[in-house]
From TrEMBL:
Pathway assigned to this chain's UniProt record: Purine metabolism; guanine degradation; xanthine from guanine: step 1/1
Designated name of the protein: Guanine deaminase
Catalytic activity: guanine + H2O + H(+) = xanthine + NH4(+)
EC identifiers of the protein: 3.5.4.3
Gene3D superfamilies: Metal-dependent hydrolases, Urease, subunit C, domain 1
Native source organism of the sequence: Deinococcus arcticus
Described function: Catalyzes the hydrolytic deamination of guanine, producing xanthine and ammonia.
GO biological processes: guanine catabolic process
Domain Aminodeoxyfutalosine deaminase/Imidazolonepropionase-like composite intervals: 30-54
Amino acid sequence: MTPVLYRATFLHTPESPFTHPGALRVHEDGGLLVSGGVIQASGDFAALHAAHPEVPVADRRGGLLLPGFIDTHVHLPQVRVIGGLGLPLLAWLEECALPEEARLANPTYARAVAQDFLAGLLGAGTTTALVFGSHFASAVDVFFEEAARVGLRAVAGQVVSDRLLRDELHTTPERAYAEGKALIERWHGVGRALYAVTPRFSLSASEGILAACAALMTEFPDVRFTSHINENVREVEVVRGLFPGARDYLDTYERAGLVSHRGVLAHNLHPSDRELGVLAERGCAVAHCPCSNSALGSGFFPLRRHLAAGVQVALGSDVGGGTGFSLLKEGLQAHFMQNLMGEAGVLLSPAHLLYLATRAGAQALGLEAQVGSFEPGQQFDAVHLQPLPGTPLDAVFRHAASPERALAAAFATGTPADIAGVWIGGQPVQARVQGRL
Ligand code: GUN
Ligand code: ZN
């Protein structure tokens, strides 16, 4: 790939605004020198152009260039059931999610779903995603094929369960281990793909299946781990009954040896101080999915307590409990919900929201050396927000007092239709998808 000098207003958060005031870096007339898909230099356009006059310039002025979004919790088989509003978690699973998930037994159906799913992610500017796959190994295989075709950085795995869902979705510890091992050997570290060992949640996982997951984690020391935790009060109660010896929900994973820096647990709306302490100590991250939490009435996320304990938090869309793929919308909903929590909440600035949608996700996935910011050495994964004339965001962008105010407006009113370009590893992967998902 020949080098390119991108000229744009760009913003990024190489450090956490939760611990570093002034972490938002803003370059109003910025330059990013990209070669071989990697950012070689990052700064002001004029200086970079003077130093590299021979490099062709890609002029992306007139919008905002941001690091590609990183979705740390999203379900492949649920793209076609987004919008099942008004049900609590366990009823929603039974009525909306699981009947659709059973259809992915058919690989032709699974491929069509994977294509819809990937169009949704890329259209929303998501360049890296931790994907809850399917219960069917064949569907996970198809997903990795399709993800490689479009270039997404996918961290994904087969979802495993052996009770309390529906028969078609149940497996055994032996089969979970064997199918997981085969998928890891076929996909982990191939191109941009990584594997995540994925027991659905303790409610649907016996100790035997959690042990099979732990065996995979031990045998393959670089694969990731993901599951759900403390999402819904009824779910927490059922899990307590199923694991009478466990101290709390986290302990069901902890006793199996599954809680580590390689993990991301989704939701954690109802944690004890002990659980937060263990997550922080082990470096296990939490995916905050505010649209899902609102749609399923699951509760308010105790972000302040997570931050105080030192737990790594990032954003997830939780499609299809969540209401779409846009991490701009998740950022806005996180802001709303924290605001509504009063003293218990955290006032989230545009810098916080950008961090949660980008670098925080990279840190949660152990990918911070590769993606999440525009620092030199990072992959050029980027989203160009440039609204069409006549749209609300266009009006704000043209009159915004500063790039930071424009960023706030992007979270407040931006949609996938405002995304004019997406790059992964320096390759353009998506033009504007107006009105889609
Ligand atoms: N807990 C177990 N499975 C699911 C799921 O598919 N969505 C959500 N939001 N929570 C879960
Ligand atoms: Zn989920």
